[in-house]
Design brief:
Oligomer: single chain
Order of helices and strands: EHEEHHEEHEEHHE
Distance between the termini: 26 Å
Strand order of the largest sheet: 1-3-2-8-5-7-6-4
Shape: globular
Strand content: 25-35%
Number of domains: 1
Largest sheet: 8 strands, antiparallel, barrel
Radius of gyration: 18 Å
Number of strands: 8
């Protein structure tokens, strides 16, 4: 899987409505940490004071670090980028063996482990996702959206996003950030995603209320209605599986140490 978010120093992608000038062939990794009860602040402190710098030391590119706006599961969601899978594995091996990391981990866990569960997924940038550009998106929220398609219909979904959806998102006040598919090789991942036919992407909105207004206008747009109907007719049915798993959404805000804001 070569390319999810040196996204923006993240940086996260500052995606335009068109394809990138050239493909981003890096491997991206989305990691979700579930903090133990009462330990999320300590986990953020460890990242802020130690982990982020050590990731950079060992050749990883920090992209974005986020927490959900409704964080009932005490989650930290973040993204890294690497040259490729071999570079990723070498970086993590060196990081895990670093005496500075071992000391920071030990000191932070004097009163118990900070993390109860880790989920990871490897991602590749789509051909319509913009290349990395360090950027602050300003006040607002990010939205992490995950679409799972019917079998063999991911190319149809990507085509619809490439040819129609991105431009319509921008038309209705949404900012495209970055778009990924699951990498073919998920060896070493600890992911809840069981299907390779998945699209994962990030949007930026001025607020959650603004996001709802934008999506309401988007869904009512005759251009979108026509594009949706045409794409489903060509594919022989809906491009995403039935709810509640076909389309998932979660609003996120960046941590104070996130390269993307």
């Amino acid at each position: 899987m070569k390319t999810f978010l040196a996204l923006l120093a993240f940086g996260l992608l500052s995606a335009s409505a068109g394809a990138a000038d050239k493909p981003d062939t890096r491997l991206f990794e989305m990691r979700v940490y579930y903090a133990a009860e009462g330990k999320l602040e300590a986990l953020n402190a460890r990242f802020r004071d130690h982990t982020v710098k050590l990731f950079e030391k060992h050749g990883m590119t920090n992209l974005g670090y986020f927490v959900p706006t409704k964080n009932t599961d005490n989650k930290l969601v973040y993204f890294l980028a690497y040259a490729d899978k071999a570079a990723r594995d070498a970086s993590w091996k060196a990081f895990g063996a670093d005496p500075e990391w071992k000391a920071a981990q030990k000191a932070s866990e004097l009163n118990g482990k900070l993390i109860t569960k880790v989920e990871t997924a490897f991602l590749t940038a789509t051909d319509y996702s913009a290349l990395a550009a360090a950027k602050s998106f300003g006040k607002g929220v990010f939205e992490l959206r995950t679409y799972t398609t019917e079998a063999s219909r991911l190319p149809d979904l990507n085509a619809r996003f490439r040819d129609h959806t991105l431009k319509l998102f921008e038309k209705h006040g949404m900012t495209n950030v970055c778009y990924w598919n699951l990498a073919a090789d998920q060896k070493g991942a600890k992911s809840s995603y069981v299907a390779s036919n998945t699209l994962i992407y990030l949007l930026h909105h001025q607020s959650e209320d603004a996001a709802k207004a934008s999506f309401d206008a988007f869904r009512a747009d005759p251009t979108w209605v026509a594009a949706k109907e045409a794409s489903e007719k060509k594919a022989g049915g809906s491009l995403t599986i039935a709810q509640p798993n076909g389309v998932k959404s979660e609003f996120l805000v960046p941590t104070d140490y996130s390269p993307v804001k």
